[in-house]
Hints:
By secondary structure, the chain is of the alpha+beta class. The longest helix is centred in the C-terminal third of the chain and has 15 residues, at 90-104. It has helices at 17-24, 30-40, 90-104, 119-127; strands at 4-7, 45-52, 55-67, 71-81, 109-110. Strands 1-2-3-4-5 form a 5-stranded mixed beta sheet. The chain has a single domain, classed as Gcn5-related N-acetyltransferase (GNAT) (Aminopeptidase).
Amino acid sequence: MPFIFDIIEKDKIHSVVPLVQKLNGNIDSDAVLKQRFSEMITQNYECAVIYDDEKLIGVCGLWFCTRHYSGRSVEPDHVFIDDGYRRQGLGKDFFDWIYNYVKAKGFEAMELNTYVSNSASHKFYFNEGFNILGYHFLKKL
């Protein structure tokens, strides 16, 4: 059976928490992530997912906005595909699906952040035609 790419329904958003925890090394508890996703889903956020039959194997948050320098823009966030499904071209297929989805919604640019230590993602995004535009800074308050 082929993989299914879709936007997860808002009432099922908490099902992505285990994959996001794998991406972030379980730095946040289930309760914290569930609270954050409950809030995120009420904002300009959607979550693209990959299913292998009924098993959730991939996730990519999508933040929609308009920026003065890029126009209508979408930011992929917390992109993760389960280990057993990597290196099969699934990431490329997933992003092709996402590109078509966001273009159909009228968005014209995509920008993202990736962890400095995640060199495999850097290679993937370079191969997808992304360029480094700047640095991302974070200060916890």
